[in-house]
Amino acid sequence: MSTQQILEKAKQWLVAPFDATTQEKVQKLIDNNDNNLTESFYKDMEFGTGGMRGIMGVGTNRINQYTLGRATQGLANYLHQTFPDKELKVAIAFDCRHNSKSLAKIVADVLTANNIRALLFEDLRTTPELSFAVRHLACDAGIVLTASHNPPEYNGYKVYWNDGGQIVPPHDKKIIEEVNSVNFDKINFKANENLLSIIGKEVDDAFNKASVANGTFNTPNRNKLKIVFTSLHGTSIMSVPKVLKMAGFKDVHIVKEQEKPDGDFPTVASPNPEEPAALKMATDLAEKIGADIVIGTDPDSDRLGIAVRNLENKLVLLNGNQTMAVMTDYLIKQWHEDGRLNGNQFVATTIVSTNLIEKIAQSYNVVTKVCLTGFKWIADLIREAEGEQEFIGGGEESFGYMVGDFIRDKDAVTATLLACEIAANAKNNNSTIYKELLNLYSKHGYYKEYLISLTKKGMDGAQQISQMMVDMRNSPLKNIDGSPVEFLFDYESSICTNLLTGEKTAIDLPKSNVLIYQTKDGTKVAARPSGTEPKIKFYFSVNLPLEKTEDATIVDKLLTQKIDRIIKEMQLN
């Protein structure tokens, strides 16, 4: 879009239906004529298959009352088309971010203006509780305002369907079509307060009770596990301490400096539990008091980071694949010991996650279903299997896990409880989570994963990301660290090509802009542009046998060196 086109687009925001405050802010952008004007208007913020996420501010490419109003008007239109004779209900939650509460009320206003009952949480709540509430309250849809672990200037908007999972085909594309057809002057902001219901404690109590029921397995001596927990200024403070207490974990130490919800996230550079720096206050406290386990959650409490003690008694942060492997093995084992496995169960993982999950499930004769990245696809697997197969648990490498099917999105509340349950059980057996992980490696192979995330901001960044994917498709790698590439999985074309024989087979998954290389020696390299951030992500997975757990350090070093060679080979360093 040319500079003149951007200017003309911005000028449309200087008149009604945009309010005086918005008009004033847009005029300032025009007067300054800097890059902020371009970034705010060079495109419309996309309502994608998972909703929207972006920087707050005025403009078509920003999160504000009008872009969220447009999204909600489109959703309202689609709900009326889909359920024409129904009294519609939509649950709404929001996290600790700036403007989340006021924007959530605006979203509720648009819904009630369109004759849809809005069930709005009284204050901030976790994303998993919103997913739970949709089904618990028999809603037709759900909305949560959150930008997960993004910087403070971001906010976002995610839509859930009546099964409690995020929207998937066919609803996602049809909702997008409706949203895109809404002009800003067609948004109905005139609220009908009679259709607004404020929800809170009743849903909290039901959610917490269900979390404890799904995340615990009668492990004794829970009060002997010393836990350090940090909410990283986010919403999990509303739920996690309560469910831990309800389950009998009494020796819980909360990082006080990070306990209060705060959209500025003042004690961390990023409220991302993937990053060791985000958990430093928690690990420092854990070292001070001799804690067994450290857990931190992101602002909307759907992802968690876990630090446990290694063989040298030092705290180490597990990655998402490691956490998922330990949790999946533990859950299946509990189902097995309870006599609940009958061949009709499954676990789930995603295409960019570790293959170790399949090895673990296979050892119990449990099916593993592999889907695209994102928990909405795991929720879709559950919905498709309802009444025929039972879902045990599942997750992906991005530090998220889902325990059972009572929630249809990643759930750091119940996963925190499960992590503590596993740690307490291990402690009863003179073991640790780390030792349990090494036992899995010894049994199934030592799998090591690594992620590189390259940020490419703005219009130029988006073009660079697009070109990187084009280059990798048109000129695929032939060898990776000396091992021939056997398979190229292109999820956008839905074709898997055997590069050694030329044979092509269809991929039976929805299309997605993801490429995965798989070599003869079992190495996996995936490339995927993020759907919510200006990033392209590269996922690496390598493996070697682990003959005995005492060799773990040596094998880990060999795998680290292998990953380093691959990164250098691909010129990603």
TrEMBL record:
Per its UniProt record, the required cofactor names are: Mg(2+)
Q: Which UniProt keywords apply?
A: Isomerase, Magnesium, Metal-binding, Phosphoprotein
Concerning Pfam families, the annotation shows:
PGM_PMM_I, PGM_PMM_II, PGM_PMM_III
Q: Which PROSITE patterns match?
A: PGM_PMM (PS00710)
**Could you tell me which InterPro entries the record lists for this protein?**
A-D-PHexomutase_a/b/a-I, A-D-PHexomutase_a/b/a-I/II/III, A-D-PHexomutase_a/b/a-II, A-D-PHexomutase_a/b/a-III, A-D-PHexomutase_C_sf, A-D-PHexomutase_CS, Alpha-D-phosphohexomutase_SF
Q: By its UniProt entry, which SUPFAM superfamilies does this protein fall under?
A: Phosphoglucomutase, C-terminal domain, Phosphoglucomutase, first 3 domains
Q: Which CDD domains match?
A: PGM2 (cd05799)
Organism's domain of life?
A: Bacteria
Q: Which family does it belong to?
A: Belongs to the phosphohexose mutase family.
What is the designated name of this protein?
Phospho-sugar mutase
Q: Specify the species.
A: Aureibaculum flavum
